[in-house]
Amino acid sequence: MGQAIPEESEAAAKKNGDSAAGDVEDFKLVGYSKFLRANPRTDRFPVLGFHHIEFWCGDAINTAGRFSFALGMPVAARSDLSTGNLFHSSILLRSSSLQFLFTAPYSDYPSSQTQSPKSLIPSFDSAAARRFSADHGLGVRAIAVRVADAAAAFHVSVSHGARPAFPPAELGLGFALSEVELYGDVVLRYVSYPSSGCVLPSFLPGFEDVADRPDPTDLSYGIQRLDHAVGNVADLTTAVKYVAGFTGFHEFAEFTAEDVGTEESGLNSVVLANNEETVLIPMNEPVHGTKRRSQIQTYLDHNGGAGVQHLALSTGDVLRTLREMRARSPMGGFEFMPSPPPTYYANLRRRAGDVLTEQQMKECEELGVLVDRDDQGVLLQIFTKPVGDRPTIFIEIIQRIGCMVKDEEGREYQKGGCGGFGKGNFSELFKSIEEYEKSLEAKLQTA
Ligand SMILES: [Fe+2]
């Protein structure tokens, strides 16, 4: 459960596993208007989908509790003192196939004691976790993807230039894990396990399911899966060459400062995708020389370097999810960026009147949902304010409409990235972020 990877995508990924990756040496940004989308299916190893996101924090149960309340993600499993883990507290939240893991180190006192490594996340490093929290505050440590073979993915990646972070380790029951550096202190974690066979844990070996709770679907606000995980880096070309080079991922979309910048700030962005376009990894870099400094640079300064900027969570009904989330905002849930001005919604009928009903458009305005579309579908999106102390990581909630296609067996599914990433809304987002930053600055000046 919680690992809904269709068998056919696994088979397709395996089939394409030994294709040669495209040459990324000549990578150059061309901008949204000149970019031609193609899927060369150049993955260097089979990548089946996102598996989980791990946050490193100072106290796992409290941080997880806030995310659980804010996002409607019940606690699903744990590995901590109660399960015999003396080294770290790890709490897993789950909503449909979205899995967020929160991990914090315990004190170092048991370091002389021996413990079966099977009860731990083997790559966990107490000193590194402490340093991570001190340097970055709350942040994502690992973007985990399910691969066919975590050892093979590691060796292929390293042989194509990936910097190793943790060598392959067997977790028992056929599970394996390995890690390579992604950007900053963030790792790309490879997880592999059998699709069927013996009784498998719902997450990873060593974790105990939390069973004495109400039906998780009753607690959910409708969030279904991770759509994309975005990083901010100092130098996009270097980062794209590095990640595309060892994964073989292809370029799915790109935006340059002219496409998305407002008068006062800008960025360049590239979206990398696996063969199935189910793992979408956009990366942004700041563009300098504008009147106001880039919000990507502000992130890099406050985060102490590169890191995950936002996680886009997909829901089947963004209006329902938003009503639930907004009801919790005043009580410790997540707050949202200011809504766009009424003029934005006055134009909405022209842009999306053929897809959304009058009632839906009215609710989008009431809830502050942004609407965009590309040549294939429609994207409904909204952004939270930064969720931690620093103006760094935030959450995006999205619903994609359209792009339904059938697989070889006639089953319907939605193509990845349907409706785009909100290019038309980028400028709206930056305007609202900039207004937020200005309001903070005004407070500092009057303090
Ligand atoms: Fe996004």
Automatic annotation (TrEMBL):
Its cofactor is Fe cation. Fe cation binds at residues 228, 310, 396. Residues 49-205, 225-385 form the VOC domain. It comes from Apostasia shenzhenica. Belongs to the 4HPPD family. Its main location: cytoplasm. It is found in: Cytoplasm. One of its GO terms (cellular component) is cytoplasm. Binds 1 Fe cation per subunit. Keywords: Cytoplasm, Dioxygenase, Iron, Metal-binding, Oxidoreductase, Phenylalanine catabolism, Pyruvate, Repeat, Tyrosine catabolism. GO terms for biological process: L-phenylalanine catabolic process; L-tyrosine catabolic process. GO terms for molecular function: 4-hydroxyphenylpyruvate dioxygenase activity; metal ion binding. Pathway: Amino-acid degradation; L-phenylalanine degradation; acetoacetate and fumarate from L-phenylalanine: step 3/6; Cofactor biosynthesis; prenylquinone biosynthesis. It holds the Pfam family Glyoxalase. The gene is HPD. PANTHER family: 4-HYDROXYPHENYLPYRUVATE DIOXYGENASE. This is 4-hydroxyphenylpyruvate dioxygenase. It comes from the Eukaryota.
